[in-house]
Amino acid sequence: MEVFKTPHGVGYRVDSQRADLTPGANLLRLLALAREKHGATAPVMVLLDPRVPIEQIDYVDGVAAKVPLGNLHYFEFSRDTQKMAEIEFGPTIPYSKNPPLN
Amino acid sequence: MKVIVAAEETHWLCVCSREEAICEKGTIVPWINGRFYPNPLFGRALERARMADASQVWSEELPELERQGFLRQGPGASPTHDLISPQINAGHWVTIDHRHVLIHDAGERIARTANKCEGSTDWAYSNRKGNFPPNTDKCNKYVYDVTKEAGAEALTKGSNGKMRPPLAAEWADPNVSVPNWRVLKPGEKPQPGDVAAYKLPGGGIFDSGHSGIVTFVDSNGMVHSIAAHADVVGPDDKFNSTTDRHVTYRRFTGDGANGDAKQKQGLRFADPSDGILPLTSAQNRGPGRTDHRGGF
To answer: ipTM higher than 0.90?
Structure first.
């Protein structure tokens, strides 16, 4: 799955198909089709354009939970450098200037 | 006011005086073998089973019976299993002014109804469910159907002025009014039976958000829920707020429409169909030991 910047906001592509707001091709539906095709436990690679807001991660996570798809891996990718790195999150904790560090 | 706390979740035996066994409208509730049964059919059947099964240690408390596998289904299970199991977790009985009152825990009832649907494909994307056509997401329809079946119907006013089930995004929006359902305050801990929802901005009307029913909250504060997914109703642990996804919880406050104070408190008088009157473990040890006085 790919999350990318568009002139009007953010776009999504799942298994090469562009998501829109129609019932048959909205992001939820495309992820549901991917689940049918690859299985509920198959790893889902979410490639994030670095220009999209970081809140898109929670958005994709929320839509995937609705499908449900649980095995999501987020990567920031760069077309320029042709490199990418996985983004991993710890548990949600209260805001603090001195958060616990592992 | 004299109140006898007459129930804990896992006990059903009743010990109270015959004079107190009078329900609303003056109906005398039957006593069978010294035990009070709002449902006389159930009571007679259970007492018959007790008499026939003298080898069972009936004086033991329910946890002991459960430990012994008495409530086990299948081969070897007690013939009374089917009679007993529907009585568990029906609510909490108290006696107020000589009347037996069942205090329903609405949240537990909603959560129980929600769990009952686990594995169902009725709300699947491709299925028709009520006035929801095929090829539509139905997580909010599931929440609506559960709350309705549990007697806590949730409706909101649509743009045309008519009441309809809330969309997931409306559940998630604290500014949207859902009569008889209040939004939990920040920091307020969710409970089983609460509705949980978050918005999915940008998804359009087909994907406005996600909603489900809280089933339990673990010791770490993690909220566990159940929701209708694309193909099946199942567990959903994503109803926990994250940095960028705020989850709104709402709790049923009772049907305020009729202004009945008892219903607002989740009270109603004994119904013969509710079965045997439960009691506390202390009452189980003998009559008159759990006569707690005071209001509630």
So the answer is: no
